[in-house]
């Protein structure tokens, strides 16, 4: 069952009176509790922090305005699905091509952040530091080249640690599709970043 | 890759096995080099991805902005004198905030509808089911949306049914019927009552959004038809019988 139920679409969202207020407050809390997840999702879908913040803001308005009448499954997945829809709506308006470069932009920002923010331990030899940064760049490079539908499932699992069920609800896919995309995404990425170890990854 | 349990490795790794199955699989792992190697590979990949794409915290400014929005308007027990003075102000404030919320909902809805239309125009095909036959389109919607829309072809009047698709409006899945009039593609979104109430006539970049009725169902149409063509089309839709 998808979390997003259209059956309740006719239920008025703006509850007047105390029960509606409490529910709206509950949705606000829910959204704030998962704000980091929402923001990161926005960041790697949209490719920059300002758009991510704006999309999360939109999603927040929409989630609270809905009155939560459609939360009938996992609340986090419900909230992240709204965030994702707001991001996709923005992408559609700003141009489809951005979706493909978004990850590269995030990657570039990450690279900068990592270089600026992570002060490497002084005892780590410079070659090792370089090696680590090269490894991260390699992973970002191949991640950006994964088909978007694999990448999305992979990032929701590995970064946001969503369960298969939650990913299925966020993306509105059958759980079997989530599992096969995750397996194929992982296999493709493993193959790309570890070209020597190809035999490890088939069958995943 | 010969172990017949190899398919369980990702399930175990992702915490998708129940406790009993987890314990059982761990016993298997003790004896199976192959599954252990697969597990190590998955773990290395996760570390690689996490190192490459570090998560960041949401900016404090965003959190504060949303906190302010979320602050529930709790009823306060004003002293009687202050209450009288506050009433006029409160009425104004409540009216403003209700108005703002409605406006935000309306904007968000309009953006979704336009975005869906533009996205479909940019896609390889504007429809997920191609058919001018309403007997194909209608069953296609069954199982995808709770209430299948009324599907009619008005080809005889110059508005030919092209097909249908399902899209998101806000967080609801809605059926979209696609018609063609000359070179124009027309999207008809069949909406729930709550969303339909928030549709106001709007135009953006030469496209218009208008509320209308499809038989008895509330709907919204997005197109680049001129006002006269649109009025004719709206009349056709309104007159459609179930």
UniProtKB/TrEMBL annotation, chain A:
Residues of the RNA polymerase sigma-70 region domain: 32-95
Record keywords, A-Z: Sigma factor, Transcription, Transcription regulation
Gene3D superfamilies: 1.10.1740.10, Winged helix-like DNA-binding domain superfamily/Winged helix DNA-binding domain
SUPFAM superfamilies noted in UniProt: Sigma2 domain of RNA polymerase sigma factors (SSF88946), Sigma3 and sigma4 domains of RNA polymerase sigma factors (SSF88659)
Family statement drawn from the similarity comment of this UniProt entry: Belongs to the sigma-70 factor family. ECF subfamily.
Protein name: RNA polymerase sigma-70 factor (ECF subfamily)
Single Gene Ontology MF annotation: DNA binding
Region named Disordered: 1-22
Record-annotated RNA polymerase sigma factor 70 region 4 type domain positions: 140-189
TrEMBL record, chain B:
Keyword Membrane: yes
Domain of life: Bacteria
Membrane found in the keyword field: yes
Keywords, comma-separated and alphabetical: Membrane, Transmembrane, Transmembrane helix
InterPro entries, per the entry: Anti_sigma_zinc_sf, Znf_put
Putative zinc-finger domain residues: 9-36
Pfam families: zf-HC2
Membrane spanning stretches: 78-99
Protein name as catalogued: Anti-sigma factor RsiW
Protein species of origin: Dokdonella fugitiva
